[in-house]
Amino acid sequence: MPTIRLTAAQALVRFLAAQRTIVEGREVPVFAGMWAIFGHGNVAAIGEALEAARDALPTYRGQNEQGMALAAVAYAKAMARRRMMACTSSIGPGATNMVTAAAVAHVNRLPLLLLPGDVFAARRPDPVLQQVEDFADGTVSANDCFRPVSRYFDRIARPEQLLTALPRAMAVLTDPAECGPVTLALCQDTQAEAFDWPEDFFAPRLHRIRRPRPDTAELAEAVALLRAARAPLIVAGGGVHYAGACEALADFATKHGIPVAETQAGKSALPHDHNRNLGAIGVTGTAPANAAAAAADLVLAVGTRLADFTTGSRTLFRHAGRRIIALNVQNFDAAKHGAAPLLADAGEGLAALSAGLGDHAAPADWLARATEGMVAWRQAADAVTAPPIALTGNALPSDAQVIGAVQRALGHDPILVAAAGGLPGELHKLWRASSPGSYHLEYGYSCMGYEIAGGVGVKLARPEREVVVMLGDGSWLMMNSEIASSIMLGLKLIVVLLDNGGFGCIDRLQRATGGAGFNNLLEDATHTALPAFDFAAQARGLGALAIAVDGIAGLEAALAEARAAPRTTVIVLRTDPRPSTEAGGNWWDVAVPEVSAREPVRAARAAYETHLPQQGS
Q1: Could you give all domains of the chain from N- to C-terminal order, each with its CATH number?
Q2: Do 324 and 318 touch, CB atoms closer than 8 A?
């Protein structure tokens, strides 16, 4: 068998560059590139290998290891898991900085390949700089932190271990059910060690996304349940996007007369004005969607893990005897909530269900009842997103009013990127998405700091689209460094920064559970002086254009300017941390203290206890 002598790092890079996939009918590399911040755990060997292969596997320099890994996560999400990116870091803090991003990918079922440097396999210089030592276990390193947030973990202590580890990694990264982060911790002496590799190990390999079809018995049960249902509801999750099943969902809902509600990950599966689309569901849901969920006798959950925000902490689906069909590619998710599982690709499952149902449609009166509230809801949404001059009370704009301004100024074409805080709740209800993938929210892990890094990843994936990032000052202060990456890489973003003086969302939650305002807004935190942040100056210092505006009219004018600008523009606007949209929504289980000296906490606890009996299975 012909062999080629390469270091382990060189072999790793060559293997990754040889992996292929199909996107929109074209064969392309699986890996769009490698994000890298070099240090003593990876610069010598992996750095050398990446420099030599820079044309086959581009290397992108991040500013923060968490940020670059979040950009890779966002890239994979924007590509509906068809393509992905890898990330390499040094040993120690460089590696552990990526753990949060691994958790984001794990929760959201997204492919991410992490290649942190590790200790010396030979242990000759043990302990090395930045090594974490376990007094009772000599095999432990800081990279063991990745184990609970990786779908597959391996520590490479010999070059030849890559012969099995890399194919296993690809099997996980490209499998629709097992998809998630993979960590290959690379001992730094092993990276530099040479081995005679079989040449065929580097032959191009085409990875096709598996589309499993449903089991006959599970399909028959699901068809029977749908035929018997008098008030069925579809809940569309992120799996609809990952399966490329948005059109199949629209066809199914239209043909069989079933209304659709969307999770955060599922939003934009249907256009906002589709006649079956009731909008957002759950804690941050619309009134029509949540009313339909409460009345539904059958819920067809497509590609969703049915998390607490979707189910209203198990209080939303209240019909006596209601059933759930969980159409999901992953058995772990299909088994939740006592559902009847339908283990399959979302598109294949919907097609099989439609064939089994034939011309059957849900009762017309149910569809009419479920959708009759949509006109009133759209009017309510128009009211809260209108400029403050049309309302009374708030001198500073609310989150909802900012959302309205962004939508009016930019229309439905851009891809919206956001995460964590108060914005996701308002956006889930109010943003009007027109096409699949145009709504990009990280709310599975609700990770502050995702927004700008995520925008970079989305723009890498969709360079032809305008990308608008919305975030609060809390997320900005946590991680704004990837603004510099957007400038360096020529990836233009429009960033709308809402300065509400701290963590406004959690301040509202704190007060809603009876607590006093404490340590969330800057004015309620311990300080000797309140800082006067100049966010626009910070953005300019990172290379961006920046505009500080007052009010909604100024924001809309700045958005037009940003759209015409040649590079990333950050628009800063002072907003009111207090208001949130009262229409829609559902209770969320946030445990309130049983005992407190504060009367508001005792009152909140009493209200909390009235909801607990409503929680179902």
Answers
A1: 3-207 (3.40.50.970), 216-372 (3.40.50.1220), 377-574 (3.40.50.970)
A2: no
